[in-house]
Amino acid sequence: MCTLGSIDTILVNLYRPPATADDKFGKLLSVVQQYLDRFLEKKHHDVYITGDFNLPMIDWSSCSVDHSQGQARGIVPSQRLLEFMGNNFLSQIVDKPTRNQNTLDLVLTNCPHYVNSVTSEEVPISDHNLVTVTLGFDWREPTLGRTGAVLPDPHSFASLNCFEGDLEQISSKLREVNWQQLFNLCVESEDDDGAGFMELMRLTCLQLALHYCPKKRIPLKPESGAKKKNTNRQKQILRRKKRKLKARLRALQAHDPDSSKIQELTDSVSLLNIDIRDAINLEFNRRELKAVATVKKNPR
Asked: Residue 32 in contact with residue 49, Cβ under 8 Å?
């Protein structure tokens, strides 16, 4: 277990042998829970828990335990894992088999909206597949918008455009929450004054909003012709860099597939994709502002 303070991310890697006693797996989850609580109670962190859990009884399409398999030893740890995920608002994102027809290698996270792709590929050195998860978030420090305003915390309500969110889905999910059960868990402590339940309610609503609401667009000022040319030129430069990097990547994969530089080039291409996307969004916003300004000048 470790915490990357610069990007507010918690990483946990676990291994549960198939014959692990139920109480030992429960103790392991308790240790992880204590570690998460130590950081999450102070500040929001992205959480990624990975590992080989050896729990084939869980049907991940419905997040339920499949009792028809008849593996009595796996029922209790499967239920404990699902309960642990529910308590921490975690989603399991591996939707493909990782060993034969079973999904044993899992990735649990509280920010599934960052996931771009998940692959599961066979490798010659193991009977388990290699699971690769590609994330689509920009880990670099946020910059200032062109209006001079500081960008809001990306994990806050302020960063979301709730007017364009799927309010019906949010309402449906909120109705499924057992609020009475959560309240009872929070007020077990004699010192609790209700603040714990209020914070849990806020986090529940925030998690749903992050999943069903789009991000706000950065406010922009209309650009001059020179700035427009600079924006287009910037996109061209980024795309040219991307083509060159992809050509190098293909050459390495063909002639030296074990090279350590392959992952480095792959990461560089991913970052360039983010920069290109941002440049396209800026151009889209510039055109939108120009159209609005035109309409205001001549409403007819």
From this structure: yes
Q: How far apart are CA 272 and CA 239, in angstroms?
A: 8
Give which of 92, 108, 113, 82 is closest to 207, Cα–Cα: 113
List the structure tokens of 18: 């198939």
The token pair that represents 107 in the structure block? 């990735």
Nearest C-alpha neighbor of 238 from the set 282, 281, 279: 279
Could you give phi then psi for residue 133, rounded to 5 degrees?
-115, 125
pTM to 2 decimal places: 0.50
Half-sphere exposure of 41 (CA within 13 A, CB side): 9
The tokens for 208 are 């749903």
DSSP per residue over 110-139, as a string?
Answer: S-GGGEEEEEEE--TT-SSPEEEEEE----
Cα gap 140→154, rounded to integer Å: 12
DSSP category for residue 99: B
For residue 43, give every residue at least 6 positions away whose Cβ sits within 8 Å of its Cβ, in sequence order, or none. Answer: 8
Per-residue pLDDT tens digits of the chain, which is 300 residues long: 898 888 889 999 999 998 888 889 999 999 999 999 888 888 888 899 999 999 888 888 888 887 776 556 678 888 899 999 988 889 898 988 999 888 899 999 988 888 888 898 988 888 899 999 888 766 655 555 444 555 667 778 878 888 788 888 888 889 898 888 878 777 665 555 667 778 788 888 888 888 898 888 765 554 455 555 566 777 778 878 888 888 887 887 888 888 888 888 888 888 888 888 887 877 777 777 777 777 666 655
Torsion, CA 74, CA 76, CA 78, CA 81, rounded to 10 = -140
Number of CB atoms found within 10 A of residue 212's CB? 19
Residue with tokens 């102070």: 42
Contact (CB, 8 A) for 87 and 147? no
CB contact at 8 A, 280 and 217: no
Is residue 60 within 8 Å of 103, Cβ to Cβ? Answer: yes
